[in-house]
Each structure stands twice: as C-alpha cells, then as structure tokens.
C-alpha cells in the first residue's frame, strides 16, 4: 500500500447524498479481482449515457475537473453493499481522498485498508469546500500528519482520525504489511515449532 502523507490536488464537488457502492462501481465491473482498470467503471451510470457517450455536465467529465485527486461528496458516502472494488475504482481513477460529513462503516474500513483517505468534516465545512471547488480555483491540500484540509481560498479545517489508522496510512501499511513487520518473530516461532512439533511440518 502506498503511504499517504500530504496531498495537493484538484477537488471535484459531488453534492449528491447517499451515493452507494453500486453507483460508485456498478455490479458488471465486479467480475475481476484485479485493481487496475476499474477506474473506467467509476460512477459509470453518471458518466455515460445508455449509448456509452460521456455525459458532459457530470462533474468528473468536465474539463476543469479532469485529473481530480480529491472528491468532495455528500452525506453518507459509500452506503449500500460491501465491495472493496469501490475504493479500488476511485483510486484507479486517481481519487486518493474523499471528504464528506459521513461514510458508511464498511466503505470507510475498505478505504483505510487500501490507502484511500476518508476525511470527515462538519456539514458547514464540507459546504464551504463544495462551494469553493465549484469556483475557478479547485486546488486543496490534505495533510494527514497535521490532520488538516486547506480550501482553495486558504481556509483550514481540522479533522479527527484514529491514531492507529493514521500511523498505518502514513507508513503505507495494509494488513499484510502490518503482519510483515513481525516477520522475525514469525520466523522464530516457526523454527521453534519445527523443532518441538516436527510432525506438523509434514
């Protein structure tokens, strides 16, 4: 997992509330367990019409928001069924941070497990970011170490985060990486078991 420390990037405003995981990545894109390439299915029914043509006024199709790495979202983002493909699709598209007033629990956990930072701010703070992102300047800064978001106009908002999750994000540790930090202890345990209980090795 790639470490997340500070992100300076373009922010795209998606003011819809209750965006569920099927809207983030529709079911027809769940046939793969590969993370690469899922960005093409992100918000598919919002981005494309039934004929497969881009819907010009959807925010992520607009030229000024191309290459956005921060998504300012409505309340209860990521609700619905559990699918790890949702953060995979966002990250493959280039979105590395989502800011909202709240996230569904499973989606929130999947984000942290994959290196996408979900930031919870108060409703009035999200509204400020949403409004500013709709203006001419779309650049925001998200600093995980300082736990701050700086709006395009320079307003600074602080967010809370579980310290254990923060540390893992800063170090780029997923569940496997966290386990491998104890590789020496694991090797010692396996060596002792091989000597003391050799029948388990067969």
UniProtKB/TrEMBL annotation:
InterPro entries listed in its UniProt record: 3-IsopropMal_deHydase_ssu, Aconitase/3IPM_dehydase_swvl, AconitaseA/IPMdHydase_ssu_swvl, IPMI_Swivel, LeuD
One Pfam family cited in the UniProt record for this chain: Aconitase_C
GO CC entries: 3-isopropylmalate dehydratase complex
Organism superkingdom: Bacteria
Top EC class of this enzyme: lyase
Keywords for the protein's UniProt record, in alphabetical order: Amino-acid biosynthesis, Branched-chain amino acid biosynthesis, Leucine biosynthesis, Lyase
Gene3D superfamilies membership: Aconitase, domain 4 (3.20.19.10)
GO-annotated molecular function: 3-isopropylmalate dehydratase activity
Swiss-Prot/TrEMBL GO biological process terms: L-leucine biosynthetic process
Ranges for domain Aconitase A/isopropylmalate dehydratase small subunit swivel: 1-122
Catalytic activities: (2R,3S)-3-isopropylmalate = (2S)-2-isopropylmalate
Pathway the protein acts in: Amino-acid biosynthesis; L-leucine biosynthesis; L-leucine from 3-methyl-2-oxobutanoate: step 2/4
Annotated EC: 4.2.1.33
Family per record: Belongs to the LeuD family. LeuD type 1 subfamily.
Record note on quaternary structure: Heterodimer of LeuC and LeuD.
Function, as annotated: Catalyzes the isomerization between 2-isopropylmalate and 3-isopropylmalate, via the formation of 2-isopropylmaleate.
Identification of the protein by name: 3-isopropylmalate dehydratase small subunit
Source organism per UniProt: Caulobacter radicis
